[in-house]
Amino acid sequence: MKKLLLVVLVFLAFPVLAETPEEKGLAIAREVDARDTGWGDFQAGMSMLLKNRHGEESLRQMRVKGLEVENDGDKSLIVFDQPRDVKGTALLTFSHKVKDDDQWLYLPALKRVKRIASRNKSGPFMGSEFAFEDLASQEVEKYTYKFIRDDELDGTPVFVMERYPVSKYSGYTRQLAWIDKARYIPLKIEFYDRKNSLLKVLVFRGYKQYLDKYWRADEMFMDNRQTGKSTLLTWKDYRFRTGLKDNDFTRNSLKRAR
Amino acid sequence: MWRNSPMQFVAWYCRRNNLWQGLAFAGALLLLLIPVQVCAWDVSGYLSVEGRGFLQQPLDSRQYDNDFSLALEPEFAREWDQGRQSFVFRPFARLDSKDDERSHWDIRELQWIYAGDGWETRLGIGKVYWGVTEAMHLVDIINQTDLVENIDGEDKLGQPMAKLSLERDWGTLDFFLLPYFRERSFPGVEGRPRSQPRIDPDLVFYESSREQKHLDYAARWSHYIGEWDIGLSYFHGTGRDPLFVPRRLRGGEIVLAPYYEIINQISLDLQATLGEWLWKLEIMQRDSDSDRFTAATGGFEYTRVGIFDSDADLGVVAEFMLDERGDEASTPFNHDLFAGLRWTANDAQSLEILFGAIVDWENGSTLVNLEASRRFGQNYLLSVQMRGWLDTDRQDLQYGFRQDDYVQVELARYF
Q: Where do the H-state alpha helices sit in B200-306?
């Protein structure tokens, strides 16, 4: 809220000053973040349908819990249900704005909780076209920004902007994002690899509003333009403010997750 | 064997094993018989077929060359009270075509769990893992090793326990009461790989006059501070690692009798997660009537993600293993070095290959290990394992395995 206020004040105080594309990009990112603040916690089901270029399919199913943390990145707990050989495997992430995330993986066969290297940002999540960094908590500080142009996407007025990952461990040089001007939500993101060629295109579909405020897409379709593989990520049963606390995001709670 | 009714089965099981486990099993059966409408059981698990082929002549002509077995491990779980309470029942059984000792079954888990606000309690049979290293699990002591399953020591027998955990800002405290001791399983006369002479579990003896009923206890503090994960543990009771005493059977055969001492053990496990590097250390001191010694293992794991512009990761693992007892140690990994490579494809089939070797830097004995697995379709997992012993020295405890190089192929159907 403070950030939003600051942005508004800056606009009110200096209406005549010309804004650089970088400043405008950052302002849009802050507004996106500000409008998505205050949801508290959520629980949802998530599935991923992986498809290779021959059309062969593979399914992932998991349950996700998230907790908003003030002045830091969010906490999340992901428990796998499908494929069955990884059922009960769980991933606990404490994301941070600038420094590396803390991440623990629970291996149910051994009952072992293993702290893992969270710099594995660019690696595929569960063999899908989503990288860990695509699904991580999207903090403003994780990128720098540049406004490109005003445009329309399928008739919806959008800001087109670029963002550049701060971490050198990111798999991308840049991302090109189409942000809905009215709702401040991403509609489409293009990912450019380390050689700056188009790698993947992510399209958000079926946005629904929760708690009369927070927009969440039912579907996120990631299309890899270099390999012909794709992943359709589907969210279901979103529930907000379910009363989750810090205690639900501990290494012990990983072992209980099933 | 049993006939007809589940109660007869329970009675048979009580006779064959012990009353405590029998009653626990009866309890589990009763819970399972509750109509489905009342409880929503979450059922999962696997059924697997496994083949093992040994590449050389056995040292003992009674040992087999090729082996085939079936294993089943279903899990029945349910949650209620808004997730605060849960119950898990996970039996395991293996039917082996050659080795009677490897045909066995066990209750891996039979547990009631209550999760309070900042505390948790677990009652029943369960499994607990302590430690950070990959090759050797030095400080992990709560559960007994189910050695007939795999000599890597990662399969464990279910341990009866009462556990209380407290989660505070300054870390997690775990308290354990362990009222019943599980004997380690060993390959039978026909079994491979196995020691020479063989271990005869019927000749087991204990330091404590209460034998398996000695009440063991343990406590652990664990915490993470920034990049550091730390655990400090204490255990008192019947040591899980037996000592072996040679005995002559009536027929003249020499065998080894397992002897379990009462021990005190303190241990530390530590991991620093620094970018792509994981630095690990496990160290413990064990006290018993016969000995007092320190042992340690540690090293690093370095993972390079997205190698050669692919999705694959390549990890390098190197760990030392050191035991103050030297050649007198009850483990072959007393002055050894492990080096391994782990290749993870990160593909839809989760293809993974681990190759490594453990070399004794004093006597040169080398254990070579290759493990690979991948998924087929949505529910099948194929695993291949190869182990070989090279230049095994007479001084090394693996000397009995020197002819036991093997290939193991397992296909598991998960449900």
A: none
